[in-house]
Amino acid sequence: MTTKLMGQKVQRVEDQRFLRGKGRYVDDILVSPDSTEVLHAAVLRSPHAHARIIDIDVDAVLDLEGVHAVWTYDDLTGPMAEPLPLLIPHPALTHSRTQYALAKDEVNYVGEAIAFVVADDRYLAEDALGLIKVTYETLPAVVGVDAARAAKQLVHEDVPGNIGARLEQNVGDAPAAMATAPHRLELDLTIERSACTPMEGRGTVARWDPDTNRLQLWTSTQSSTGVRAAVAVKLGLDLGQVDVITPDVGGGFGVKINHPWPEEVLVPLAARALGRPVKFTEDRREHFISAAHERGQVQHIEVGFDDDGRLIALDVQFWHDHGAYTPYGLIVPIITSTQLLGPYKPQNYRVVFESLYTNTVIVTPYRGAGRPQGCYAMERTMDAIARYLGKDRTEVRAANFIQPDEFPYDHQLVFQDGRPLVYDSGDYPASLEKLKKLVGWEEFPAFQKEMAEQGRQVGIGLACYVEGTGVGPYEGAHVHIETSGKVKVATGLTTQGQGHATVFAQLVADELGVKFEDVEVVTGDTRRMPYAVGTFASRAAVMSGSAIHLAAKRAKEKALRIAADALEADEKDLEIVDGVVRVRGTSADTPSIALGTVAVLSNPLRYAFDEASQAATQFSIGDPGKPPVAEDDEPGLEGKDFYSPDRATFASGMHAVIVETDPDTAEITILKYAVVHDCGTIINPMIVEGQIHGGVAQGIGGALYERMVYDESGQLLNASFMDFLMPYVTEIPDGIEIDHLVSPSPLNPLGIKGAGEAGVIPTAAAFASAIEDAERQVRPEAVITAMPISPSELYTLRQEQSA
Amino acid sequence: MTEDLHEVRLSVNGVTHDVRVPARRLLSDALRHDLALTGTHVGCEHGVCGACTVLIDGAPMRACLMFAVSAEGHEVTTVEGLTRPDGSLGPVQQAFAECHGLQCGFCTPGFLTTITACLRENPNPTHEEARDMISGNLCRCTGYQNIVASVERAAEIARGGSASQEAAS
Question: Which residues from B are below 8 Å from A27, CB to CB?
Answer without folding.
Answer: 32, 38, 42
